[in-house]
Amino acid sequence: MTESVSFDRAADYYDRTRTLSEHLIPNLLPLLPGDGVCLEIGVGTGRIALPLVEKGIRVVGVDIAPEMLKKLIAKRNGTWPCVAVADATGLPFADQTFASAVAAHVLHLIPDWRSAVEELLRVLRSDGVLVATRGGVSRPRWHREVRSRFFKEAGDPPWPPGLVTIDELDAHAVGLGLGVHALPDIVTEDSISVNQLLAMLEAGYWSACWSIDEETCRRAATATRKWAREKIGDLDLGRHTVETMRWHAYRLAE
Ligand SMILES: C[S@@+](CC[C@H](N)C(=O)[O-])C[C@H]1O[C@@H](n2cnc3c(N)ncnc32)[C@H](O)[C@@H]1O
Fold this sequence. Notes:
By secondary structure, the protein is an alpha/beta fold. It has helices at residues 14-17, 24-28, 49-54, 66-75, 113-123, 141-153, 166-175, 194-203, 214-231; strands at 38-41, 59-63, 82-85, 98-104, 124-137, 179-182, 186-192, 239-251.
């Protein structure tokens, strides 16, 4: 896979299959200067951008998926967030346009994610800040085992095409002379059964599943169910999950 992963196919179900921690916006707000505009790359349906606008931050969002942007436009009340179809690796903005930038759950979808980071630095003011997360990490062992068994049964498709860990982003940022600062982890607790998790994998709710054809997905889910019944037990029992999301801030002027 050499191209960025567009979420057009997820537009109809994205919002109902993703949650937003109540802690995220309060964590981000103190970092985003109110005297300038914030750019979000991979803004999607505005899951993060819309609540930021509600808190008074002017947000411009870009995405390569017009269907995701249509969902955002249908939800917004006014002109903010302003959106454009654009690729994060070639932003249609002049140098030093933005006071801050957000890259949430997107850099892993971009094979050339380092170019996207360099583009962000080009369009940020010299006192600007970039806040980023790679996505959820550190789930309980049973959850990780079910997922990795499913992907093994599906032939271990290569994933992700872009950034693998936030540590990789930190190393790149430090190499570019940026200061790195860790925000408090966002921890989300939930309850889900093995069958529910496998149903979501089989339905292809996550982009990691999109290179697997339907028949292979079905076979992988059936084989994983059989394995899990022996190794984990009751497939319908709700099991506790904890997902930890790491967010980091990167500053030019440090
Ligand atoms: C997982 S969604 C995250 C959306 C939003 N940031 C959020 O947290 O809800 C990733 C989004 O990034 C977009 N995307 C992927 N590659 C991109 C690129 N090269 N430039 C801009 N957007 C991109 C996808 O189309 C998708 O809408």
